[in-house]
Amino acid sequence: MKNNMKNFIYIVVILFSGIGFSQEKQDVKEMKVKLAEKQVLREGNDLYKEKKFDEAEVRYKKALEENPSYEKANYNLANAIYQQKRFKEALPSYELVAKAAKDKNIKSQAFHNMGNVFLNENQLEKAIAAYKDGLRINPKDEETRYNLALAQKLLEDQNNSENKDKKDDKNKDKQDDKKEQDKDKQDENKDQNKDEGDDKDKDKDQDKGDEKDDKKDQKNGGNEDNKQQEQQKPQPNQLSEQQIQQLLEAMNNEENKTQQKVNAKKALGRKTNQEKDW
User: Fold this and answer.
1) Is the pLDDT of residue 117 over 90?
2) pTM score of the predicted model
């Protein structure tokens, strides 16, 4: 019985010893992984300082292959992408860190850089919201406060410019409407003046026609008068009855005168018996 008890105790000791050894091996393995992650992260940081952002990006991604939830690797990867001006690609990494990071410092910096991405994309309202989230976590961050004021000023200027443009467009529309109305009025006046001019021309043409008719009538009347005069005027080798009568009377008178002359001549040729009464 004692021997059996000793054997049981020996087996239990061996089992627990094996568990402890296995756990120790697991702890060593995890430590090596963390050291490898940190080593890759350091390599990436060195490249980042040398402004070799594309190579640093590769090292950060390698570190994340070993541990996808590595906060610092995610944050540094986003910074390396941001420095290459691939702002939209950097945004998801910043959002992931801002949402999941336990380190408040990293979390506030992630919101700060999210604001920078939105600022570069001219999404001013989103930039302002991100900066405010960063300041809620770290109210003493003066850089975030400055960027917030800058984004707010840019948004104000943009709104003022848009309002001015709308006002200018409205005034322009009013001016265009007025010009259109003036043009319509001018066209209407032009048409009216044209109609009046046409009426005047018509009246003028009618006056000219009447004048022409009058002249024609006068001409025709004159022709008729001339015709009548020509009819009354004796034609060559043709005497009117009145002229014939006058001519006959003249001939008779002339004949009488001749006869008287003949008689007078006869009387002069006779001797006259002159008797004296004394």
Assistant:
1) yes
2) 0.52
